[in-house]
Amino acid sequence: MDCIFCKIVSGEIPSAKVYEDDTVVAFNDLEPQAPVHVLIIPKTHITSMADINEENSGVVAHIFEVAAIIAKEKGLDDGFRVVSNCGDSAGQSVKHLHFHLMGGRTFGWPAG
Ligand code: DGP
After folding, report:
1. Cβ neighbours, 10 Å, residue 75
2. How high is the mean pLDDT in each 10-residue block of the chain (112 residues)?
3. Cα(33)–Cα(19) distance, rounded to whole angstroms?
4. Pocket probe mutation, ligand 1, options 81, 85, 93, max atoms within 8 Å of Cβ
5. Which of 7, 41, 53, 103 is most exposed, with minimal Cβ within 10 Å?
6. Whole-number pLDDT of residue 110
7. pLDDT value at position 31?
8. Any idea of the CA torsion for 23, 85, 33, 70, to the nearest 10 degrees?
9. What b/e sequence results for 60-71 when a residue is b if at least 16 CB atoms lie within 10 Å of its CB, and e otherwise?
10. Which residue, 86, 112, 88, is CA-closest to 99?
11. How far is 53 from 33, CA to CA, in rounded Å?
12. By alpha-carbon position, which residue is closest to atom 19 of ligand 1?
């Protein structure tokens, strides 16, 4: 499968990794939108949030544990944001499930 994030998991495409274990990997976003902007992804290919089910949701729970670990490590004590864009209208450009962990600045709502 021609998937950029699967290639990051395998090491075929280099990335600045900030966390890795058996099931997930986290690395700095190539186009950071905040002083801290990390992508947390499952190692197995899941296309988007629309494909989460009772068989694979465990890795999503784990991703949120990892987000808390990284936020602490990065000193995001004032707060941070976790976002997953799902599908074209939400702006999902890479079709491998990923969560943006962003912090180090103030965020607007619902965007910005
Ligand atoms: P989204 O638009 O939600 O699908 O976010 C995809 C993000 O992935 C976007 O912020 C840029 C980032 N990205 C795309 N290609 C690469 C890559 O090859 N390496 C890294 N580190 N990030 C990438």
Report:
1. 10
2. 95 98 98 98 98 98 98 98 97 98 95 78
3. 19
4. 93
5. 53
6. 86
7. 98
8. -30
9. bebbeebbeebb
10. 86
11. 30
12. 30
